[in-house]
């Protein structure tokens, strides 16, 4: 039996076979504002290894990134990239590959989940909104996702936490809007809900699968996560939304923090519920 990670799906994905598989699987996407990050960063590689050690086979999708414009930052060179729907298409391809190869991967199709961190959480939620009713995952796992391009202002409690920790205040409204415009390659007006899942209505969410959402604590993106969670609840969907105390955005990218392992245990425990 293969126990070390290997490349699959014509180079699109890296598979992390489970140790002592319990039949669960997770198609996973890293974050990085749609334009950055890779499958070697901790919130991809470390997360996959930790979950595989707990019995879940993880398929990490190396999706196409949006471009880096010439005027983005002085110390960062411009880079070509691909706008929406490229990354979303790659998530769909990764998901469908995992489903079609579930047997050989030791995954029960009815125990296959999808998820991601930050922008990867957006890609996961957006992919679900594009799937047919017979393709839906058993579970959606969203870690500190970004789900709205025009982000509501944080409430007074979160605003006070951000003001007290300026280094954590990474996602003001204008920065988030720019991130989405760069991802889309133009204005966010009339963007499809698969690109901005937070715009989904209750009717759009009528068949959305059970969802676990773990938000950051001192993280302005938490606002869009909570908005989406409220929409899921209004649609009568199963949604478990929590925040990891005392965390800034991206804590799964910092395995040295205790909160990272707490979130791994949360995700692993929820995946275990998919087993009989």
What does the secondary structure layout of this molecule look like, with pairings?
Layout: E1 6-8, E2 13-16, E3 24-29, H1 45-53, E4 56-61, H2 86-100, H3 102-105, E5 112-117, H4 119-130, E6 139-143, H5 156-164, H6 173-184, E7 211-215, H7 222-234, E8 239-243, H8 258-272
Parallel strand pairs: 3-4, 3-5, 5-6, 6-7, 7-8
Antiparallel strand pairs: 1-2, 2-4
Describe the 3D structure.
This protein is α/β, with parallel strands linked by helices. The protein has eight helices and eight strands. The chain has an eight-stranded mixed β-sheet, sandwiched between helices. Strand 5, helix 4 (119-130) and strand 6 (139-143) form a beta-alpha-beta unit. The longest helix is centred in the middle third of the chain and has 15 residues, at 86-100. The radius of gyration is 17 Å and the shape is globular. The model has no long low-confidence stretch (mean pLDDT 95).
Quick structural summary:
By secondary structure, this protein is α/β, with parallel strands linked by helices.
Main attributes?
276 residues; eight-stranded mixed beta sheet; globular
* Overall pLDDT confidence: 95
Strand order of the largest sheet: 1-2-4-3-5-6-7-8
The backbone outline, from C-alpha atoms, is: globular
Detail the poorly predicted runs.
none
How much helix, percentage-wise, in residues?
A: 25-40%
Main sheet overview: 8 strands, mixed
Total beta strand runs: 8
Radius of gyration: 17 Å
N-to-C CA distance:
23 Å
Kindly name the structural category: alpha/beta
Oligomeric grouping of the chains: single chain
Summarize the helix and strand pattern as letters.
Answer: EEEHEHHEHEHHEHEH
Strand content: 5-15%
Number of helices: 8
């Amino acid at each position: 039996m293969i126990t070390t990670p290997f490349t699959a799906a014509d180079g699109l994905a890296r598979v992390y076979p489970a140790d002592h598989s319990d039949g669960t699987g997770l198609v996973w996407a890293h974050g990085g504002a749609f334009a950055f990050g890779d499958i070697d960063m901790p919130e991809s590689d470390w997360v996959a290894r930790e979950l595989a050690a707990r019995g879940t086979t993880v398929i990490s999708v190396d999706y196409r990134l949006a471009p880096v414009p010439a005027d983005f930052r002085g110390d960062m060179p411009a880079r070509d990239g691909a706008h929406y729907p490229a990354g979303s298409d790659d998530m769909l391809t990764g998901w469908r590959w995992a489903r079609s190869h579930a047997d050989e991967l030791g995954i029960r199709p009815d125990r296959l989940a999808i998820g991601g961190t930050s922008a990867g959480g957006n890609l996961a939620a957006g992919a679900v909104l594009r799937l047919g009713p017979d393709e839906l995952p058993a579970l959606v796992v969203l870690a500190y996702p970004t789900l709205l391009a025009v982000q509501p202002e944080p409430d007074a409690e979160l605003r006070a936490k951000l003001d007290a920790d300026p280094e954590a205040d990474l996602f003001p409204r204008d920065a988030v809007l720019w991130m989405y415009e760069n991802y889309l390659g133009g204005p966010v007006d009339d963007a499809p809900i698969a690109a901005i899942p937070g715009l989904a209505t209750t009717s759009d969410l009528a068949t959305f699968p059970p969802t676990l959402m773990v938000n950051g604590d001192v993280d302005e993106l938490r606002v869009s996560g909570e908005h989406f969670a409220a929409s899921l609840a209004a649609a009568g969907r199963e949604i478990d939304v929590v925040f990891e105390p005392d965390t800034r955005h991206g804590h799964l990218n910092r395995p040295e923090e205790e909160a990272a392992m707490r979130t791994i245990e949360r995700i692993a425990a929820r995946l275990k519920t998919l087993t009989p």
